[in-house]
């Protein structure tokens, strides 16, 4: 059953920014509430956020892409204003939840998936498990290609230090955003408030720690799940665009080279002077690259390099 949120729901949910986003709703899936946003019409384009974040990271892309596509974003279970999974969070569990939401929304046929950071790993897992349901992938600064990750995330895998460090603090919210944005003008008071509100959600820290311990250790991202996932994904040759910010401090741009080796049939693009959120820092260019790619899935590998 679909339950549509009203304008007041954003206030009820405690949204720190205080703006009302068209198309935002609450959807009940398997007895749990998922906050999602649906705008536009056309082929479905699903946007997946990173760890500890929310669908609000896709505001700029809803604005730019909903004229061509039915754009769907969601708070992944346990993050933002979505209920957690009934079991410990995992990449596969999140991918399954995305599939369940799409079914609840009545989305038929294959979808186009765009994932940032953790959302990229979720998108790859979705595609590896359900290749017939995926028309194309866009992976933006995605987890899953290399071992290196910011020290701030590695130390969260240490018990009980991780939970202590995830206590909601305004200074921590500012530090988080400094690690994500190259251009400090994006670190606005509104975005700081929103980041603090996300960290204050009751299930955020637990979900984040469960995922971090599945995916990595204090030494970095575990090789096993990355190797297995890419081994399943690569032979499928799903049309894929891999994007990266050249100043990403969370997942370094060297991961783009690993992506070239793992998914050689893909297109690649490196954004100059850009951090971990190119969909925000380079919103226009990001939307143009995604739009152009989705209209041309059949480019030959040797022609799939962008500058």
From TrEMBL:
GO molecular function annotation: hydrolase activity
Residue ranges occupied by any AB hydrolase-1 domain in the UniProt entry: 45-288
rRNA-binding keyword on record: no
Source species taxonomy: Bacteria, Bacillati, Actinomycetota, Actinomycetes, Nakamurellales
Record's keyword terms, sorted: Hydrolase
SUPFAM superfamilies associated with the record: alpha/beta-Hydrolases (SSF53474)
Annotated protein name in UniProt: Alpha/beta fold hydrolase
Coiled coil regions in record: none
Pfam family, one: Abhydrolase_6
